[in-house]
Design goal:
Length: about 110
């Protein structure tokens, strides 16, 4: 099975080894991310959820814009984005000295 993974988070590109019922439910063009329940609470905090909602609604934004929109420090937003990026929920792209962040439309399984 080809997957980008840590001990607790896996991003699937090949569904061949999944349970047939789960495989059918997940058929789509969107990537699938499986997150261990032990770390789900660290990934889905209210502040990280706020960032995800903002990116879904407004599209890609620079980290500074996210910090301004959420009324948080740049460093705190950056730390949260690192967790979300590691989980595969957002992607970052450097634009000179700035970093633009976009939400990745994916299916997330907590198991």
């Amino acid at each position: 099975m080809k997957a980008t993974s840590s001990k607790k988070i896996e991003r699937f590109e090949d569904f061949s080894e999944l349970d047939p019922g789960l495989k059918e439910a997940l058929r789509s063009e969107r990537p699938v991310i499986r997150i261990d329940p032990e770390v789900a609470g660290d990934v889905f905090t209210p502040k990280k959820n706020e960032i995800c909602k903002l990116l879904r609604e407004k599209g890609p934004l620079h980290i500074k814009e996210i910090a301004e929109e959420t009324d948080r420090k740049h460093s705190a937003v950056s730390r949260d984005l690192n967790v979300l990026e590691f989980a595969g929920i957002v992607e970052k792209e450097k634009e000179g000295r700035k970093t633009k962040v976009k939400y990745v439309d994916s299916k997330i399984i907590i198991e």
